[in-house]
Structures are given as C-alpha cells and as structure tokens.
C-alpha cells in the first residue's frame, strides 16, 4: 500500500460524500414539493365542493316543493350586488332533501360574516 492508494481512498471518500449530499438535497426537494402540491390539491378539492354547492343552490332559485307556495319568478331573487346575492328557495332538510314546502331565504356573500 502506497501513497497513491491513500489518495485514491481519500478522493473516493470526497466524491462519495458529495454524491450523498446531492441525494439528500434531492430527497429534501422532493418532500417539499410533495407537501406543497398536497396542500394545493386540498384547497382545489375544497373549492370544487363549495362551487358545486353554490351551483346547486343557484339552480333552485324560486323552487318550492309545494308549488302553491312557490314565489313568483320575478320576486324569487330578492337582491344581488357585487358582494352578495339573496334569493328564495326551498332548502332540503334531513328528512326530505326536496325541502319542506316552505320557501326559505338564502344569502351568499363575499367577505367576513360580521
């Protein structure tokens, strides 16, 4: 064993350490990207649920299970502004998803609830 063997061992240790640091850095970046993308997926999934609920309620403007109590189409939309919309509809209950036959006032708005 000579001097060149020691230099070969030292060189391979340095190169192996550099490769190990590169692999650990790639793993860290991969984990970070996974968490960022998972968070965005959760936000998008929740947003889809909210939009589906909003679309369902908008389709029911003026609906009432008891057609004799249904509001006139012209008066079913109570107000609409840049920040809110208020309308009459028959909201479903736990017992009957079609509603209870009494028109309810439903309001959606953008901003804080206070």
Can you offer a commentary on this structure?
There is one protein chain. This protein folds into two domains: 1-59; 61-114, no CATH class. It is 50% helix and 14% strand. It is built from one helix and three strands. It has one helix at 3-59, and strands at residues 77-80, 84-89, 104-109. A three-stranded antiparallel beta sheet has the order 1-2-3, with no helix packed on it. 5% of the residues are buried.
Features:
2 domains, 50% helix, single chain, 3-stranded antiparallel beta sheet, alpha+beta, 114 residues, 3 strands
Summarize the structure.
This protein is α+β, with helices and mostly antiparallel strands. It contains one helix and three strands; from the N terminus they run αβββ. It folds into two domains: about 60 residues; about 55 residues, no CATH class.
Order of helices and strands: HEEE
User: What is the rounded distance between the termini?
Assistant: 81 Å
Unreliable residue stretches: none
Structure class: alpha+beta
Number of domains: 2
Proportion of strand residues: 5-15%
Rg from alpha-carbon coordinates: 31 Å
Please work out how many helical segments DSSP would assign.
Answer: 1
Oligomer: single chain
- Count of DSSP strands: 3
Large-scale geometry: rod-shaped
Q: Report on the biggest sheet.
A: 3 strands, antiparallel
Helix content: 40-55%
Strand order in the sheet with the most strands: 1-2-3
Mean pLDDT, all residues: 90
């Amino acid at each position: 064993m000579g001097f060149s063997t020691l230099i070969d061992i030292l060189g391979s240790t340095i190169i192996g350490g550099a490769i190990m640091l590169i692999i650990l850095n790639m793993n860290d970046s991969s984990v970070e990207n996974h968490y960022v993308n998972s968070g965005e997926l959760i936000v998008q999934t929740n947003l889809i649920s909210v939009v589906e609920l909003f679309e369902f309620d908008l389709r029911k403007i003026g609906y009432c299970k008891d057609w004799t109590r249904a509001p006139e189409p012209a008066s079913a939309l109570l107000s609409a502004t840049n920040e809110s919309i208020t309308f009459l509809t028959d909201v479903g209950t736990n017992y009957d998803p079609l509603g209870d036959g009494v028109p309810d006032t439903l309001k959606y708005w953008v901003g804080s609830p206070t």
